[in-house]
């Protein structure tokens, strides 16, 4: 696998054919040459100087074979009949015994393992203050995840929600407090908020307990106010 990885990270490649076949699999044929060997007077990437062909499965885009001529070694064929990325690992393979006297706390799960966004619980720990959110009982609004923007200690937390085929974002942070924003003044949650419009997006902005809050999305004033009053 070290050879496979090195070829894919230290090569200059040229597509030779889009209709090749290896072991009955349709593949792309790429001619490769070690990148260092293309430089005048160079002896290659360290002592690994090669040229040859790499064959990539057209469906999975994963390598299935490498045919290399390695200087000082000879001809080498590397077959990869089965290669799976990000294959799930059975939890039963791992055990954990906490040290005596240590309290074990559950680790907050992320909303989505694919997006890398924070869960609300994780964002709450990072913020150090209460983040307003829509209660889960309001099932028409689905929290997609939370992004932490900016440097630690001065972050803005953006909660992204889906509502049918549309989405909106609730941004919260101390750096958003008391911003001078022009627009229509409205009353919300016992304070004065500002409605502003940019293109198709409308934003409702206010400050609550020293934290600035903005709700932005392609929706009506009434819907923004309804969402604001749902927050807990």
**What is the global morphology?**
elongated
Radius of gyration from CA coordinates: 28 Å
Helix/strand structural class: mainly beta
Number of strands: 12
Low-confidence stretches: 37-46, 108-115
CATH class of the largest domain: Alpha Beta
Strand order of the largest sheet: 6-7-8-12-11-10-9
* CATH architecture type of the largest domain: 2-Layer Sandwich
* Count of domains: 2
Please work out how many helical segments DSSP would assign: 3
Secondary-structure element string? HEEEEEHEEEEEEEH
Average pLDDT works out at 86
Strand content: 35-45%
Considering the protein shown, what is the CATH homologous superfamily of the largest domain?
Answer: MucB/RseB, C-terminal domain
CATH fold description of the largest domain: Phosphorylase Kinase, domain 1
Measure the end-to-end span.
52 Å
3D structure, described in words:
The two termini are 52 Å apart. Helices cover 11% and strands 41% of the residues. The strands form two sheets. It has a seven-stranded antiparallel β-sheet with strand order 6-7-8-12-11-10-9. It is mainly beta and 232 residues long. Strand 9 and strand 10 (191-198) form a beta hairpin. It has two domains: 2-79, no CATH class; 120-230, MucB/RseB, C-terminal domain (Phosphorylase Kinase, domain 1).
């Amino acid at each position: 696998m070290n050879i496979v990885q090195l070829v894919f990270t230290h090569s200059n490649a040229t597509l030779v054919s889009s209709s090749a076949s290896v072991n009955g699999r349709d593949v792309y044929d790429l001619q490769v040459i070690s990148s260092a060997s293309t430089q005048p007077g160079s002896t290659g990437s360290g002592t690994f100087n090669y040229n040859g062909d790499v064959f990539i499965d057209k469906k999975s885009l994963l390598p299935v074979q490498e045919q290399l001529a390695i200087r000082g070694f000879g001809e080498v064929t590397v077959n990869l009949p089965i290669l799976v990325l990000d294959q799930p690992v059975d939890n039963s393979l791992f055990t954990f015994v906490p040290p005596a006297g240590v309290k074990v706390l559950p680790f907050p799960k992320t909303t989505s393992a694919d997006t890398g966004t924070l869960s609300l619980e994780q964002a709450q720990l990072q913020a150090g203050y209460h983040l307003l959110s829509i209660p889960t009982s309001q099932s028409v609004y689905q929290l997609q995840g939370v992004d932490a923007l900016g440097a630690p200690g001065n972050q803005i937390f953006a909660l992204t929600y889906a509502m049918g085929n549309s989405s909106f974002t609730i941004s919260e942070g101390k750096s958003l407090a008391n911003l001078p924003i022009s627009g229509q003044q409205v009353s919300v949650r016992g304070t004065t908020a500002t409605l502003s419009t940019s293109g198709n997006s409308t934003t409702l902005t206010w400050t609550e307990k020293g934290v600035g809050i903005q709700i932005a999305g392609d929706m009506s004033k009434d819907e923004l106010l309804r969402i604001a009053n749902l927050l807990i």
